[in-house]
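Input sequence (337 aa), recorded before submission:
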Amino acid sequence: MTSIINNKTLNKENFPQSLNTQETHNEKIHLFPDILLPWKATILAYASLSISTSIGFPIDAIKTRMQSQYNFKGYGDCIKKTYRFEGVSGFFRGIKIPLFANAISRSLTILLFFKIKPVLYNSVQYLEKKNSVILEGQISFLSGAASAGIISFFTCTFDSLKIQSQILKLVQKDCSYGSTSSQIQNSRQGISILKTLKKTVKYRGLGGLYSGFKYHFLRDTLSGGIYYSTYEVTKLLLNSFQEISSKTSIFVSGGIAGVLGGLVAFPLDTLKSLVQKNVMSNIIRIENGSNPLPSKTNNFQILQRGVYRGIIANLSRAFIVNLIFFTVFEFSMAHLQ
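Predicted structure, token format:
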């Protein structure tokens, strides 16, 4: 991940070291004390993810609303109504979780990727050097999938809270039995992550935080494999052209990896959003003295009617967030010591 590979081919001698090998710079900024140097990549990954997440979060908010099957006429209508009913804060609702938990989890995923990838590579002794690009793709896919799958057990609860916070006001409006004016007034009231957590645990128990876990796990595992393998292989191929600078290869590879990973993740992400919407709908119904709706078992049938609803927002966010992340991360790894 952090390697800037200038070799046209990989071999078993240089591959493990390439994970942590950076371009040589005569002047580096000495920022980390010796005790923190082993955690340099994790710390810089967290900082880079915080920057990229903050920039891309408003797009993620629109994406979640579009995925939740509300009757928005399009992206413009979704943005207009979000601002009208929730103000600017509506575009950043739930951002505390990604800045804290998700950024940490992604950082740990990268750390696991560093650990798993050389182990898998060294275990494959029968592949020839001429298959270096194929080998890079295979090992990076397996390493990325394993890393993201392991961390998904930790991220599911926080991701669920983020989604529930983003759509809670829409669910309130959808389930409200009062007048439209009272609904709009209610939607302007502040709803914190803590309140969302209390609501979920009160009415659904701790299991409510793992609603849609099977979709979450599949999403992270498959998209993680595609994401990391696309980044490493694309960067490897681009670096084989002398006229393409390493900075350009990082920038382009990061954006492409985000888009392809997003395409794979999107249908499963949509299913997870629908599950979370149903959870919050039933919580609001119970609070209003109504019986919960029967669980919808045929989520895939619902998905077929809007499998790529919100996909443009999702891919736009993925491209922007990941090109920013990889550019900041690799630049920091190369220049900070």
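Checked by second reader. The two ends are 18 Å apart (CA to CA).
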